[in-house]
Amino acid sequence: MNSSFQTGLQDGFLVRLIIDLACVLVLVRLIYYRTYRRTDLFLTFFSFNLVIFLIAFVLNSVEMTLGAAFGLFGVFSMLRYRTEGISTVDMTYLFLGIALGLMMAISSAGPAGLAMVGAVLLGLTAALEAGVLARRELRQEIVYDRIELVHADAREELLRDLRERTGLPVHRVGVESVDFTRDLAKLVVYHHERKSDGHPSHLVSR
User: Fold this and answer.
1) Cα–Cα dist 20/29, whole Å
2) Cα separation of 9 and 25, whole Å?
3) Residue 165: C-alpha distances to residues 24, 47, 153, 170, 177 (Å)
4) Are the CB atoms for 158 and 149 separated by under 8 Å?
């Protein structure tokens, strides 16, 4: 076995792995789940983080040729697989997990430095999700049946109707599509989060 690789395994592999997994556990279980109450992407988040950590650590522990460098680039390029079913928020958490894996694997900082970097990233994420730095705005899709209010001149009336029918403090709305044959419109409504709000992905107004 390559001596530099053996040195890499002896030089903080387990410590880096433990710090990495601890950071991802906090990110996924304490921040993501607490906010969105979803567990279906846990396997994706943890798997991507662990695989990226192992690949980056192994390749960073050996002398990389030009071909190996291009190979690493190709591996990361494959992350652009079809993601139509993953929301922007989910993709953001996926990239946070990937970033943690990369940083923990290749950073030259010691355990204290790695823990500090992880704490900064997690703290900032938690602050953003809690609305400390900026008030959270939720986005929801609605199938709407009063298409006469979709007209630009009736926007205030549309907002009032949406507030009454959904019970949400809607402050802006976007029109994605209008089906005149069925008198339905697909809207995207935006409202600021309230403590009593859940996190439904869709609402249907009929």
Assistant:
1) 14
2) 23
3) 39, 41, 20, 11, 20
4) yes
| Strands across the sheet containing 184-192 | 170-179, 184-192, 137-144, 202-204
pLDDT in tens, the chain (206 residues): 455 545 545 558 899 999 999 999 999 999 999 888 889 889 989 999 998 899 888 877 665 555 555 555 555 555 555 555 677 788 889 889 988 998 898 888 888 999 999 999 999 999 888 877 767 777 888 899 888 888 888 889 988 998 898 888 888 888 888 888 888 889 988 887 765 554 444 444 33
CB-CB neighbours of 158 under 10 Å: 22
